[in-house]
Design goal:
Two copies of one chain form a homodimer. By secondary structure, chain A is mainly α. The first copy, chain A, contains eleven helices and no strands. The two termini of chain A are 35 Å apart. The interface between A and B is large, with 76 and 76 residues. The first copy, chain A, binds a DNA duplex (30 and 30 nucleotides) through helix 3.
Amino acid sequence: MPSTSPERLIWHHPEPPGRKHALTRAEIVRAGIALADTEGVSGLTMRAVAGALGVSTPMSLYRYVLNKDGLVDLMLDEVSDEVDVPAEPGDDWRDDLRGVASSLWRMIGRHRWYAELVDSRPPFGPTTMRRAAFMLAVLDNAGLTPAVTYVSLLDNYVTGTAMSVSREIAMLERFGIGTTQDLQAYAGEMANDSLDSWLQDMPPLTADARFELGLDCLLDGIAARRPVGRRSRSRPSRG
Amino acid sequence: MPSTSPERLIWHHPEPPGRKHALTRAEIVRAGIALADTEGVSGLTMRAVAGALGVSTPMSLYRYVLNKDGLVDLMLDEVSDEVDVPAEPGDDWRDDLRGVASSLWRMIGRHRWYAELVDSRPPFGPTTMRRAAFMLAVLDNAGLTPAVTYVSLLDNYVTGTAMSVSREIAMLERFGIGTTQDLQAYAGEMANDSLDSWLQDMPPLTADARFELGLDCLLDGIAARRPVGRRSRSRPSRG
DNA sequence: CCTCCAGAATGTACGTTGTACACGAGACTA
DNA sequence: TAGTCTCGTGTACAACGTACATTCTGGAGG
């Protein structure tokens, strides 16, 4: 149906064979990650990455990473490798899913740009797909279906919550709105002022605690949908 | 703590008093919404909005909407008004929350750019806050705490799921990846090929069905945390 | 050693974006 | 009718991604 020819993805472009003093794809990706960690998404420009590598022009990078989207894809997949994914599902599917989701959550805490960028790119990196495969196996072993939907549900929950936290941080940094009083100032001006009383006892929950709470809610809901009398299901092994 | 002076928000800039042949803030916002509906976020440029209004230069708009972020804030709040928010909580907190979340979901379906933009802006529009106030009242009446956390949880779920769907659509449009076979082609190349067997029975669930499923999971989890023996709680009324 | 050439880095340039600034035309007030 | 305020315009700039042509360089063949 799409009339234009499809865009190219970095996964179809292997790194060019290196010579002596050449740049490396890994080096560029590392520099991009470091830059995004410290300067945020808006600081991640091709010129800045080139500058961080001591290279005078951004055009040098294009040989290695295809284009900026390619660099972003590689960065996303690189930090995805920091997520702990067991080799095999364990005894308790809840523990397995909680573990992966929490590890992803902590990774995003170290790389806040991840949540902002992941939704704009197709999630086809190898480590991302490894995580998905693990979660699918866990759900499948537990007989929880539709497994693909649940994986997407959990992944979206983690990144969505991280986005929400990022927005709160940005609100504080960019608009100076952080305290309950600040919020009341805004709320009082424009909205139903019954909001005030709720904002008064805003949750003292940390971001981590809110994350855990929502994750438990989701897992409860998934558990409630487990077909009765169906403890596990085995997959046909493939050659 | 922030050293730079905080950015200005549109909510502090009332519309300038109009004269005869002047533009209107509402007109500009409508044009922006129409443009984003048809062209997507990338098509939403100040020049394009000006062009759609028959105005020769984008600078004309700046008197009315402060800057592009201001326009986006106004657009977000304008379409938020399409969400059905009852005046008062009803009998069943689940129905109330489901209703608002579903209405928000349908609104985002009509304005896909909403999910992409809402996370980048502080949610201080009047209609957005009205929705939050209603959900807080519902949760509070039902004795479900921490209410603010649950509101954020539900809102994030809706927008996060919409983002996920948007990404799938973009994948189809931009990369030509839509069918199960396409996905397998990518998965097979780079990842654990046990993925293939799961992708084979990818969910025939529609986006709407997936949304409902996840929403029910969340509501189940929230219900499971309701303090026993605590049916409802009344708020002190305020002058 | 020198010569040569592919591979690597550079410099220049273009189109697009948001938006600052100064100007001029039109409409309301006196 | 004269003056002032409001509003739309035109020009311009910095920063972005990146296409293209050019220059540099390091290692192989003589």
